[in-house]
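--- STAGE predict ---
source: upstream dedup step, 1 unique chain passed
mode: sequence only
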Amino acid sequence: MKVLIFAGATFLLGLSFMFFIGKEFTPSEDQSRFVIRLQTPIDYSVDEVDLMNRKAEEIVRKFPEVRSVLYTQGGGRTAETNKANLSINLVPKSERRKSQEEVKAEMRRALRKIPGLKASVENISMIGGQGRQVAIMYSIRGLELDKLENYTKEIQERLGKLPGIVDLDSSLEKGKPEVRVFIDRDKAADLGVDVATIAETANFLLSGEVEITKFKDEARGRRYDVRVRLDPENRASPDDIGQIYVRSKDGKLVMLSNIVTLKEGGGASIINRVDRQRAVTLFANLEKKPLGQAKSEVDDISSGVLTSGYSGSYKGQADMMKESFQYLLFAAILGIVMAYMVLAAQFESFAHPFTVLLSMPFSLIGAFGALFLTGKTLNIFSIIGLILLMGLVKKNAILLVDYTNILRGRGTSRKEALLEAGPVRLRPILMTTFAMIMGMMPIAIGIGEGAETRSPMAIATIGGLITSLLLTLIVIPVAYDVLDEMKERHFPKKDG
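--- STAGE serialize ---
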């Protein structure tokens, strides 16, 4: 019993490593390529935007690790002219001393020197798609846009003071200054002016985008669209709009200032909605900080800022991490149940499968300990390694229990069978275990492109195999003895 108590204490100690391991969806992979999303103030002209973006491109090209840069202006779903992308290709990993994450961090610091420019350095999705690949996408929902704006700014300001959270931005973008035209419908109706006529006339004279006719040049064989627009001096200020004349239903000309009120202002360029509520999305990248820790910090801050009627939810990597972890946990539990059913049928016993499955928790001690000591995170790949580990470590216990049952079937007592099964099965257990460890070692070391994603899986598997090997040889015989004795005491075999 002392052995079981010691094993239980060791298991709890090893399990405590889990609380010191960072959690994330997938580890950052050195792909030798990433994208920098640039955004300038929305009221800048096209030339000013291009000049600022070219400065950013010039800064990026000076990095010795950069092989090529592709500059494209106009980004987002609506192709905003104040946005641009720099697609960066680095020299191969073997030809540079700095990792991709180190290069990205240095570029962030360099681009901050350009006043007015927002830059977000993001990885390229491994599964394709053109969406933003930021670590945190936190959507805040509510009814009033003004409150959403205040809450977003406060959360963003608090997050900006925390280390490891970079490239903070939000989907709340103020539009260009605008002039709002409020029509006095009663006056318009009295003067016989239709609301649609007012809108069409203003659009016709101010935008210059309405085609009124076509001109055909017979000599050159060309056709031209003809559009009409007020002279610049007649549309230079909001007051000029009131000087526009519209025609009433009886043919008279009516000045707009008699039937409309003008008001200057500005509004959000894009209003997003989630579940029929107005929503603002907060974006952030991480620098040497696990996603799970950053998510907890966002939750703590938002819970102290958001009031009743306003809520937040995650999208992107944080949401996928939560969902994937739940599915993998369900898969692990289902695997344990299926393994118990198979073992119960194989051993023709309900007790011996518990003895075999007891080896699984001890594998977690080494898995979590190895991840902690190597600085790796608990991610989707390391969890897959844990599920793989649960299938591998049962093999040692099965060899011991199966041979013990064979010896007992020959008439050997329980304790003598356990003492004989250990030395006999030790060699095949050592051979198979070390063969698996050696096979996993190149993956754990992280050799080659994309090794960052595979390495945590191998490290968790190797750590679990080592501790399971050591504890299985000690704990499984003791557990077999205790469980079998309890079975004989409570469920004695009846003669005849």
